[in-house]
Amino acid sequence: MSRIEHAEVFVASPARNFVTLRITTADGVTGHGDATLNGRELAVASYLRDHVVPLLIGRDAARIEDTWQYLYRGAYWRRGPVTMTAIAAVDTALWDIKGKVAGLPVYQLLGGRCRDGVLVYGHASGSDVPSLLDDVARFREAGYRAVRAQAAVPGVGGTYGVRKGAIYEPAAASLPDEQPWDTEAYLRFAPTYLRAVRERYGFDFHLLHDVHHRLTPVEAARFGKTVEEAQLFWMEDPTPVENQESFRLIRQHTTTPIAVGEVLNSIWDVHHLITEQLIDYVRTSVVHAGGITHLRRIFDLAALYGIRTGSHGATDLSPVALAAAVHLDLAVPNFGIQEYMEHAPETMEVFRCGVTLADGLLNPGDAPGLGVDYDEKLAARFPYNPRYLPVARRLDGSVHDW
Ligand code: CS2
Ligand code: MG
Which atom of ligand 1 is nearest to the CA of 339? Predict the structure, then answer.
């Protein structure tokens, strides 16, 4: 038995903020977990440091499921992004340790490869339609088999999903950026650029689009119907997801596939969406939905209902989360697609990550564990930098879902 000797929480900002947990066993084996919750980083760091780390010391590092149950049931207070991100970090670090102890990459512990590589989608975006079309071409030339397309809605400043520099980053310093939102302008404009992408480049690659919770159920139904000819791989987060039932209305009106889950944290949050077949892809992630152990449980439930996976993988999820996702994606039978956004060079210097991209497929490499190292000395040179996600306001000044 190898006992947990210590656990450290690192908060650093190599190009953006990341919270990273490192667990070390008495035998000197280390494992890492991502604990980043964009714009709420310190809440998870405190949950871990103040409430979880003291419970880990002396526990058997091999007992992953028992530790998960202990942290989940043992807290009495359940679910929610802060709790589930903290539990995820512990769970991910323990899988990393188990892999290193066994001398095997984590995907082998999860049952081994189901596929040659993990299909990813890249993020094309533009300030207008011509620049979006150029960006789609760039991803296709780089070998991507699937591309997400987002363009800034004319007259609506700072549309989500549109990259300003080389790396997409919606979080802003000091107070949240307040961005206007006009649903009618979006509903008129977005279908035109999705059509333009198909007209220019045809249908031999997957095209995706993120609605980012902006529409009511009936507006989402109208959007899904309008874009059917573009044959989207999915429309993502068409409406806010607190009310799982509302997806039934969308479903009744359109054959455009639906993907949901980046803001959800537990199997209970997706229970009705899955068992009533209201969605096609479940997008929960290792980091925000309780780690590899819990995500596997969600994916297995989804498999029973013919629903595939499509985990969230934006730049605010660290390379540790990406590596964990890729190991799981390789091993689950109902894998669909993995979101992939390139991290900044500073991020990749701090997190040395064995994940590689070739021909539009990711692979985790064969290093034992997750195959990611964290350079804490280098990380210390990038202190935490408080940032907030934007807030959206409708034209009348009232708050909308960002
Ligand atoms: C987006 C994210 O990648 C996505 O699909 O919805 O960029 C999301 O806005 C961020 O992860 C929020 O932190
Ligand atoms: Mg999204």
Answer: 3
CA of 160 to the centre of ligand 1 (A): 8
CA–CA gap between residue 193 and residue 111 (Å, rounded): 41
Judge whether residue 214 has pLDDT over 90: yes
d(CA 97, ligand 1 centre) in Å: 29
Q: What is the pTM of this model?
A: 0.97
Q: Tell me which residue of 223, 292, 284, 225 sits closest to 259, measured CA to CA.
A: 284
Mean pLDDT, range 45-60, rounded to an integer? 98
Q: In this structure, which residues have their CB less than 5 angstroms from ion ligand 2? A: 210
Ligand 1 atom 12: residue of nearest CA = 38
Return the ligand 1 atom nearest residue 39 CA.
Answer: 13
CA-to-CA distance for 371 and 174, rounded, in angstroms?
35
Ligand nearest to the CA of residue 318, numbered in listed order: 1
Domains of the chain (ranges plus CATH)?
4-105 (3.30.390.10), 109-368 (3.20.20.120)
What is the overall mean pLDDT for the chain? 97
